[in-house]
Amino acid sequence: MSSAGSSHPSPDATTPWWKTAVAYQIYPRSFCDTTGSGVGDLAGIARHLNHLVLLGVDAIWLSPFFTSPMYDYGYDVADYCDVDPIFGDLAAFDRLVADSHERGLRVIIDWVPNHTSIDHPWFVESRSSTDNPKRDWYVWRDPAPDGGYPNNWIESLTFGPAWTLDETTGQYYLHCFLSEQPDLNWANPEVVAAMEDTLRFWLDRGVDGFRMDVVHLIGKDPALPDEPAEVAGLPHTVLNVRPETHEHLRALRRLLDGYDGDRMAIGEIYLLDTKLVAEHYGDNDELHLCFNFPPLYARWNAASWRARVAETESVLGPIDAWPTWVLSNHDNPRHPTRYATDLHLDEADTERVARAAAVLLCTLRGTPFLYAGEELGLTDAVIPDERRRDPAGRDGCRAPIPWDPSPTHGWQSDDNWLPWPPHPTGRNAVDQIAEPDSIFHLYRRLLELRKSAPALRSGDVTLLEAPDGVLAYERSLDGSIVTVAINMTDDEVEWTIPGETLISSLDSLDGAGRGALRPYEAVVVGQ
Ligand code: GLC
To answer: Which atom of ligand 1 is nearest to the CA of 270?
Structure first.
């Protein structure tokens, strides 16, 4: 056996970039403000690209920066082909793409195909009369015979009815999210053509791919039937599984494949069943990648994670669909916050778990997606009632990123759209980078190791028998083997893994001791 990082022929030359990349999600409002608006902007992202290069990620995914009235902070788009002035303008976007590409960073942007804003000119026209040419661009229905909602669907953000009555014409329109986010009617070919044009607009500007927002929703049962009684009350988003969606996805794939440079699509398939998620890869002719959320919702224990890894492998492996892994994003409490709440962890143990989770995320088979700030070990901000912004209560994970220890932490002011996450003096980029043992440098070393160890990037994964409470797996490629062991408990566990320890999540904290895994310690071992 040879050691990790030795000279194995890299399979990467023929592998598309999105299989070997590590991606990093940026929520533009919260990354860095350069204008004094208290809201982050595109120039703020450009300012910190070198931070991402130092960290070692390969691609950035930008949450929406398009023109929007911001009822859902940009996921309600009023113009798909322009930049909201709060974030900058098209020239700033072009500069950001150029600056990113110059540094070898790919750029993925968010595309929101299921719904527009109520302010989108298409909807303004559509709602103006029943015979407007754009009436059928959205989903309009008469009231039920008793005057009530056309069906029993529930929307996803406030769990109210998915229908709003429009007084002008006396019909209801469908919205799987807020009433300010009317659903487009993808059964209308004019809608398909118009939305495909929005993709071309950004492809022509040089973007490398799209994160497609709730894209499993675009095909709908034309009969819009009631949800069955046993699932009535669940939002329609988690229930919509339709053949029409697959037809649309195949067409979108053809469009992307018509461009050079491995342009890609990752779908936010918000179906909480990996088998249903897997269908959206098609026969390698639909989405290139899909987010798979069941692992994000797995609790921090070895049995849950073992089950998630096994399921992902058994479902995606046989169809040759490449997995993705994500622990945090802009829709959920950050994972250290979730695990700390669930397990009643103090701050020191929260940090240990965050470090072990970094090892997990960066060593599984598939493309990891980091969420801005997780490399700093951020936890959620505490949001006082009077500062709540999001109707769905997702503010905590959207707190501004603290860049330095100064009172404004690299922003223009101390008073921004949301409060800081805990301990911004200390837990900020400058201080974390200055501290060689910080979680930032753990992420950096993990990403460096991925680059030098083909087994970690592209190798198979095999779950190993391990002591209770320990998740262990092997990554292997062409005889090169890397073993990962994660003690998910707060007890020391005796277990010797033969080989050379390449990374310990805790070395920097405690000094290495082999023959045992310390509480919440994760190790990467090369054989
Ligand atoms: C996705 C986004 C979420 C948004 C919703 C509606 O789930 O991640 O932030 O609210 O779609 O667009």
So the answer is: 7
pLDDT digits (tens, 9 = 90+) for 155-207: 999 999 999 999 999 999 999 999 999 999 999 999 999 999 999 999 999 99
> Which of 52, 3, 60 is CA-nearest to residue 28?
60
Tokens for 373? 């700030």
Give the integer Cα–Cα distance in Å for 433 and 449. Answer: 18
Task: Name the average pLDDT for the chain.
Answer: 96
CB 409 within 8 A of CB 403: yes
Q: Is residue 66 within 8 Å of 93, Cβ to Cβ?
A: no
Segment 386-430, tens digit of pLDDT: 999 999 999 999 999 999 999 999 999 999 999 999 999 999 999
Assess contact for 247 and 219: CB atoms under 8 A.
yes
- From 215, 219, 316, select the one nearest 267 (Cα to Cα): 215
Q: What pTM did the predictor assign? A: 0.96
In Å, the largest CA–CA distance within the chain is 75
Predicted confidence band at 7 (pLDDT cuts at 50, 70, 90)? Answer: very low
- Report pLDDT digits (tens) over 156-165: 999 999 999 9
Distance 362 CA to ligand 1 centre (A): 25
Structure tokens at 292: 């798979």
Pocket of ligand 1 (CB under 6 A): 72, 75, 112, 177, 213-214, 268, 270, 330-331
Cα gap 388→159, rounded to integer Å: 18
What's the confidence (pLDDT) of residue 84?
Answer: 99
Pair 492, 469: CB distance under 8 Å: no
CA distance linking residue 110 with residue 160, whole number of Å? 26
CA 299/CA 312 separation, integer angstroms: 16
CA distance 521 to 519: 5
